[in-house]
Amino acid sequence: MSDRESLLAEIKSKGVVHGKVVLSSGKEADFYVDMRKVTLDGQAAPLVGRVMLDLTEDLDYDAVGGLTLGADPVAAAMLHAAAARGRKLDAFVVRKAQKVHGLQRRIEGPDVAGRRVLAVEDTSTTGGSALTAVEALREAGAEVVAVAVVVDRGAAAAVAEAGLPYRSAYGLEELDLA
Ligand SMILES: O=P(O)(O)OC[C@H]1O[C@H](OP(=O)(O)OP(=O)(O)O)[C@H](O)[C@@H]1O
Ligand SMILES: O=C(O)c1cc(=O)[nH]c(=O)[nH]1
C-alpha cells in the first residue's frame, strides 16, 4: 500500500466518529473527523508527514505551521519527514491569541518574517482557522504560498477567496462521508 492509501485507512479506522457534533464554526454536523487520533498516533503520524510533503512537493516553502492545536502535529510530522528526506523544514505555531507574558509572541518557533511558508491544518471546514493563521503570518511579514490540509470538509472556496492555492490530501467522498 502507498503512504496515501495507508493514511486513508488510518483516518477511516481511527478518526471518523458518527453522531451529532457542534463544529468549531458553531455549525452542526452528523459526523466528526477526530484528526488528533490520527496526527498523534505513532503509526499514522509519520504517514501524515510524508503525505503532506508529497501533496505540496511542487511548492516552494521552508517553514510550515498553522493555528494551534490541530495544525501543530501536522507541522511537526512534516518537519521530521522532511529531515528524513534530507530537507531542512522549520515549523511554527500560530497562537489563537498573542501571549501576554514572556516574549509576547503570536507565532512561536523560528522567525517567519520574509520567508515563504505553508499554512497547514489537520482538517478544514469553513477555512476560518486556516485563514486566521494566514492573517497572523502575513502580519508577521511571512509570504504564505498556500494552505494545505489533511482532510477537507469544504473550505476550498473560502481559501480561494483569500487568493491562495488550496490543497487537501483527502475529501469527504474518499472517507465515505459524502
Ligand atoms: O475550518 P474551520 O471551520 O475553522 O474548522 C476547522 C478547525 O476546527 C478544529 O479545531 P478547533 O477549532 O476545534 O480547535 P483546536 O484545534 O484548538 O482543538 C480543526 O483542528 C481546525 O482547526
Ligand atoms: O469543523 C470542525 O470544527 C471540525 C470538523 C472535524 O471533522 N474535525 C475537527 O477536528 N474539527
TrEMBL record:
Matches recorded under Pfam families: Pribosyltran
Sites where the protein binds orotate: 125, 153
Domain Phosphoribosyltransferase residue range list: 93-158
Keywords from the UniProt entry: Glycosyltransferase, Magnesium, Pyrimidine biosynthesis, Transferase
Protein name stated in the entry: Orotate phosphoribosyltransferase
CDD domains: PRTases_typeI (cd06223)
NCBIfam families: pyrE
